[in-house]
Amino acid sequence: MLILLIALGVNLFLWDMRTASCYGLDSIININANPVFSLLIYPGAKQPHCFYSMDHSDRTMLGDKALQSHGGEKPHIWSSLEGGPRIDIGKQIFCNRSLNMRNIVAIGFDMDYTLAQYKPETFESLAYEGTVRKLVYDLGYPQELLEWTFDWKYMGRGLVLDKKRGNILKMDRHKYVKVAYHGFRELSKEDKVGTYGNTFIRDSFDEPDYALIDTLFSLAEAYLFAQLVDLRDNNPGKVPEGADYPRMYKDVRAAVDLCHRDGTLKQVVAKDPKRYINEDTSIVPMLKMLRNSGRLTFLVTNSLWDYTNIVMNFLCASHKLEGGITCKFDWLQYFDVYSCSAKPGFFLEDNRANIFEVEPESGMLLNTDNGTPMPQVGSTSPKMLPKGLNKRYRVFQGGSVGHLHKLLSIESSTQVLYVGDHIYGDILRSKKVLGWRTMLVVPELEREVELLWELRDTRKQLRLLRNERDLVEDRVHHLKWSLKFESLGDDEKQNMISSLGELESRRDQVRLAHQQAQGDYHQKFHKIWGQLMKTGYQNSRFAHQVERFACLYTSQVSNLSLYSPDKCYRPSEDFMPHEFHILPS
C-alpha cells in the first residue's frame, strides 16, 4: 500500500500519483514559497523508498550536512535499505530538459573534475607553480615570477579573457560586459562602456581574440595572465622583448601545455593522490547501482591509461572486487569500456582516428579492426587480464564516438547520457554534434545554492528596493512632464518644483541603497565576480551555456546515487517577464 502525505504551510492535500510517478518532485517545488514538503512511502510498497524534506533552516533546504558522503563517511544512496537519504539542496540534480532515465541505455563519465574532484587549494596551486617554472626556465621570463603566489579563490568559472587588451570580463547571457578588470585593476564604468559598449558591430567575445574560462583547469592560468598584465604595465622592461598581452597569454598556454606533456603535474599527483583529489565513497555504490539497473557504463577521458589507472584505483580503493579479490585494476569492473580519447575531436562522427586496445598490465597498445581484436604477430601477444576481471571490461586509446557506439551496441545517440565538467569539451560537443543527453558537474554550485537559500530574505528586500526605485523614478518623470507641457499656475508650479526636488532626493537615496545592497549581496558569493550563474539580475553567460547544452546539472557526479536510476527528470516551468506578476506566488 502506498500512501502520500504532503504538508504545504498548514494545508494538507492529496497528490495525484500520475504527477509523482517519475519522482520529479523536487523540480516542482517553489523555493520562494518556502514550503514544508514531505513524501512518505510506507514499507511494502513497490515504489522505491525515498524521503524529501524542505525545512526552514538558514543553512540548507533539503536534508542536512550529516548525510553528505565525503571522505571516509559511509555513503548514503537511493538503493540502500533505508530507501535513500534526504537530499541536501547542494546535492540536488537540476533539470533543464526532460530526461527519462528509462530511455538511457549507456551512461558515460569524464574523469578529471568529474569522477575525480581535485582540491583547488593543492592541485591548482601545483598547476600554477609548474606553469611559472616553465615561463621562467623555458620561455625567458624573469626569476621574480618564482616568488609570486597564487590565490586559488580569486578567479571564477565563466569569465572571459580579452587577450588583446589584458582584461578579464564577466558578462551576462546577452554578452554585455558587466564586470571588467585590467589585470587586477577594476575598470571604471566609463572605460568599460567605451571599450565594449560603443561599437557599431557587436563583438562575439570568442576565439581567437578572447579565451573562455569554462573549466576549473583554467583558473590558474587566468590568475597568472592577470599578474603578467600588471607586470608589463608597471615594469615593461621585465617581460621578454615583444611580449604584448596576446603574446603573454600564448606563453602562459604554452607553459601549461608543457606541464601536461612532460608529466610535471600528473607525476606529482600520482605519488600522493590523497593530497590532490577529494575522496568520495559514493562513487562505487553509484556505479554499482547503475550497472545493477541494467545500464552500460563507460569512461571517456583525455588522460592516458597509466594516470587514469592510478586515479581510479584511488577513488575505488575502499571497495574490493566481487568475490573478495583485489588487484590493481579493480575499478575496471565498474565499466564496460574505458577510452583515452582526444576530446572534443572524439565526438565528431567523421573522426578517422585509429583505435588501439590497451593491455592493462604493460600498457601496450594493440592493433584492432575498428575495436575488434586482431591477431598479434610474433611475441607481442597480450597477457591475460588478472583473475577476477573478464574480457568484457575493455580498455582503448584513440578512436571516435563511432567506435564507442559500436562497442556498446548503441542504436541511437539519445540513448546515451554523458557526465562531464567541461562545458565546451564535454557538454557542448556531445550535445550539439551527437545529440547525447548531458549532465554537467559544477562543484561551485553546492555553495552557491546553499547561499541562495540563506540569503532568500535579502533577495526579497532587493526586489522591494528595485520596485520602490521604479515607482519613484516614474513619479519624477511624470512631474517633469507636467512642468514642461502642462499649463500651471505659479503656486501649483512652485509646489511641483518642491515635490520634484524631494522625489529626486529620494530617488538618489533609493538608488544608492539598492546598488549598495545588490553589491553586498553579490559579494557574499564572490568578492570580485559575484554569483556564478548571475550577472546583476540577468543570467550570466556561463548560466546561459549551462541552460542551452546541459540537460541536467549538479554539484558532483555521485549525486546520481541519490536518485532512482529510472527517474524521470522534469524541468521547472519557464516564465516570461509578463507572467511574473500574473501568476499566483
Write the SSE topology:
Layout: E1 6-8, E2 11-13, H1 17-20, E3 94-95, E4 99-100, E5 106-109, H2 120-137, E6 159-162, E7 167-171, E8 177-182, E9 185-186, H3 189-196, E10 210-213, H4 219-234, H5 245-261, H6 264-271, H7 273-276, H8 283-292, E11 296-301, H9 305-315, E12 337-340, E13 355-359, E14 364-369, E15 372-373, E16 394-398, H10 401-408, E17 416-420, H11 423-434, E18 437-441, H12 445-454, H13 456-485, H14 490-523, E19 534-535, E20 538-539, H15 541-549, E21 552-554, E22 568-569
Parallel strand pairs: 5-11, 5-17, 11-12, 12-16, 17-18, 18-21
Antiparallel strand pairs: 1-2, 3-21, 4-22, 6-7, 6-10, 7-8, 8-9, 13-14, 13-16, 14-15, 19-20
Helix pairs in contact: 2-4, 2-5, 4-5, 13-14
Sequence stretches where pLDDT stays below 50 over 5 or more residues: 1-72, 321-325
Distance between the termini: 34 Å
What spatial form do the alpha-carbon principal axes imply? globular
Percent helix, as a range, is 25-40%
Looking at CATH, the homologous superfamily of the domain at 90-117 and 277-371 and 390-442 and 562-574 is HAD superfamily/HAD-like
Mean pLDDT: 80
Beta content comes to 5-15%
Alpha-carbon Rg, integer: 28 Å
**CATH C-level category of the domain at 90-117 and 277-371 and 390-442 and 562-574:** Alpha Beta
Which topology of the domain at 90-117 and 277-371 and 390-442 and 562-574 does CATH recognise? Answer: Rossmann fold
The total of beta strands comes to 22
The biggest beta sheet is recorded as: 11 strands, mixed
Number of helices: 15
CATH architectural designation of the domain at 90-117 and 277-371 and 390-442 and 562-574: 3-Layer(aba) Sandwich
Structural class: alpha/beta
- The strand order across the widest sheet is 3-21-18-17-5-11-12-16-13-14-15
- Subunit arrangement of the protein: single chain
